Backbone:
C-alpha cells in the first residue's frame, strides 16, 4: 500500500468513479451524460426553469448547453414543462429507476467484491460517523 491519501482525495475519487459508472449505465440505456444529469436533478422533484439550467452548468461537455440538455429530455418524453417548472414524466421516472437499479447492482457487486459483509458494514458506519462529525444530520 502506498502512503495514506487524505479523505478529500478518496471522496473526490469515489465520486468521480461513481458518476462515470452511472453515466456508462445511462449511455447503455440510450441516455447521454447531459440527459442523465437532467433526469437525476429532477428525480427529487420539480425544479424552476432558471434553477434547473443553473444546476446543469457544471455538467456541460463540449458545445452542449443547458437548454440543449433540457430540450433532449423534453423531446424524448422523459420530462415535462408546466407552470415554469420542469418535472419527470412517468416515463422519465421509469427510465431513472431502470438505470439506477441496473447500475447500483452492478457497481455494488464490483466495488465490494473483495470486502466481507462485516468490513463493508464498518466502512459505511465509519463514513456516517465522519459525516455526522462534520455536521451531517439524517433526514
Residues:
Amino acid at each position: 500500500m502506498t502512503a495514506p491519501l487524505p479523505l478529500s482525495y478518496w471522496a473526490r475519487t469515489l465520486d468521480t468513479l461513481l458518476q462515470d459508472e452511472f453515466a456508462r449505465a445511462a449511455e447503455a440505456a440510450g441516455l447521454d451524460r447531459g440527459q442523465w444529469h437532467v433526469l437525476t436533478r429532477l428525480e427529487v422533484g420539480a425544479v424552476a426553469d432558471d434553477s434547473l439550467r443553473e444546476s446543469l452548468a457544471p455538467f456541460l461537455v463540449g458545445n452542449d448547453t443547458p437548454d440543449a440538455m433540457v430540450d433532449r429530455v423534453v423531446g424524448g418524453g422523459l420530462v415535462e414543462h408546466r407552470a415554469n417548472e420542469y418535472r419527470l414524466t412517468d416515463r422519465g421516472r421509469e427510465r431513472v429507476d431502470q438505470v439506477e437499479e441496473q447500475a447500483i447492482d452492478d457497481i455494488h457487486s464490483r466495488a465490494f467484491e473483495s470486502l466481507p459483509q462485516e468490513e463493508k458494514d464498518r466502512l459505511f458506519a465509519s463514513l456516517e460517523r465522519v459525516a455526522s462529525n462534520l455536521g451531517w444530520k439524517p433526514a
Observations:
- The longest strand covers residues 79-82.
- The chain has a mean pLDDT of 88.
